[in-house]
Design goal:
The chain is built from 19 helices and no strands. The longest helix is centred in the middle third of the chain and has 38 residues, at 259-296. The protein has one domain. Helix 4 (59-73) packs parallel to helix 8 (134-149) and helix 7 (117-130) packs parallel to helix 10. The protein is mainly α.
């Protein structure tokens, strides 16, 4: 394992992963070109709601990837199939439950966000259409997680890129040709999600050599495997709740400063998502390699993966900070051309220069822990970071308002990196108990 082989895995994974937030980002960008900022506010509210629902069960992708990578490392074909089937049926059932509960979900979301009447109308329109894509998106998470864990990177990349290209084309056609407004971007996203699901099933079917021996109910419900899967998923679920608390508090508090501030924050948060998912591509590479190392008992591979993870995480953070500093103006105009929203985004945009530097280690090392299917440290580090966010929010938002809000978010991002890094030595000793692995300068490849 060296820099070249790490990047050969990380680059396509980064391209694949960075397309994940594009569904919301494209919706935001397309309606951001329309003259009424209420369109942008409505889609911003709707995007937060779906991020909430999807992130809540984002562990379906992450844990699937970790278990699949370990099965790959151990050359366990049957274990690899089970790593797909168990979370796939879970995703299907959860998605159906969300459709059944769509009415209460919308009422609770809009009550908590409490936007203005016009923004509320467009948010409700967006929610009512996109809700039907939830089962397909959750099952897509499992499909993508399994493909990544089994190192089928080209298939994962193809699936993600085609889905997002379709979404972009449909959104532009529905909004600018058929003038369907918010409904147009919602329908475009829904159709893209369904299409990706159908394509994903076909890829999985081919990966299983066009035959699938279904396990018995006893095998599906194996107590030891279920206990391990649920333990990892529980900790990742708690981690996700912390993330959702931060982003929902952020959005709700930003909305209290008016529609234009809400819209500016929405644009900046979408850019933040692109940065975060760029790091997530590196995290996925680290997760696959650590999973293989654990499955095969390869201490050397684990050690090299740790070293490469922090090196490329640091380099990527500096590159992203520099890119936003140099090209921030051009990036903002991709999302909106409303002068007042751009002006507001300029005022708060410097916080995005700090974000990648603060968050890189926390996001990249997250992949190390999920690859080892040791999620308790991830849970604990996120809880500590949430506390830091709330304390900063309490003391600085009354004085600095939206700047205080962005300061609290930056402290949260820095906390994710700091607290998770503290758990690395303990993880190393646990998975390779004969001799712990330390991050030292002599590990540089």
């Amino acid at each position: 394992m060296n820099h070249r082989s790490y990047l050969a895995l990380a680059i396509p994974l980064t391209i694949s992963t960075i397309t994940t937030p594009l569904l919301g980002a494209v919706d935001t960008a397309v309606v951001g070109q329309l003259p009424n900022p209420a369109y942008l506010g409505g889609v911003a509210i709707g995007t937060v709601v779906f991020n909430t629902l999807y992130w809540l069960f984002g562990f379906l992708r992450v844990s699937t990837s970790g278990f699949a990578a370990q099965a790959l490392g151990a050359n366990d074909e049957w274990g690899g199939k089970m790593a797909f089937l168990r979370p796939f049926f879970m995703a299907m059932m959860v998605g159906i439950c969300f459709i059944i509960l769509q009415g209460p979900i919308e009422r609770v979301a809009l009550t908590l966000m409490d936007p203005g009447a016009e923004v509320r109308f467009y948010a409700s329109e967006y929610l009512g259409l996109r809700i039907w894509g939830i089962p397909f998106t959750l099952m897509n998470y499992v499909i993508l997680g399994w493909l990544m864990g089994m190192a089928k990177i080209k298939a994962s990349l193809l699936l993600q890129v085609l889905m997002n290209l379709l979404n972009i084309v449909l959104a532009l056609v529905f909004v600018h040709v058929f003038e369907m407004g918010v409904s147009g971007v919602a329908i475009a996203t829904l159709l893209s999600e369904v299409t990706a699901f159908i394509m994903g099933l076909f890829i999985i079917w081919n990966a299983f050599h066009r035959r699938l021996e279904m396990p018995s109910l006893k095998e599906m419900a194996d107590s030891a495997s279920i206990k391990k899967m649920m333990s990892v998923n529980r900790d990742l679920f708690i981690r996700t709740l912390c993330l959702l608390a931060v982003f929902n508090i952020f959005t709700a508090k930003g909305a209290s400063y008016g529609t234009e501030t809400l819209a500016a924050n929405a644009v900046l948060i979408q850019i933040h998502y692109l940065m975060a998912y760029f790091f997530d591509g590196l995290a996925n590479a680290s997760s696959i390699l650590v999973g293989k190392a654990v499955g095969s008992g390869d201490r050397h591979l684990y050690k090299k993966t740790l070293s490469l993870s922090w090196q490329w995480g640091l380099l990527a953070s500096l590159m992203m900070a520099a890119c936003y500093h140099l090209f921030g103006d051009s990036i903002l105009t991709l999302f909106t051309r409303i002068p007042r929203v751009i002006e507001m985004a300029h005022i708060y945009g410097f916080w995005l220069i700090l974000f990648p530097i603060a968050a890189s280690a926390g996001i990249v090392f997250y992949g190390v822990f999920t690859g080892a299917t040791e999620a308790a440290p991830v849970r604990n580090s996120m809880l500590y970071s949430l506390i830091a966010f709330l304390v900063t929010l309490h003391f600085f938002v009354p004085m600095y308002q939206n700047h205080g809000l962005w300061l609290a978010f930056t402290v949260f991002s820095l906390g994710r990196s700091f607290f998770l890094a503290l758990f690395i030595p303990r993880l190393s000793k646990k998975i390779f108990p004969e001799r712990g692995v330390r991050l030292e300068s002599d590990q540089t490849v």
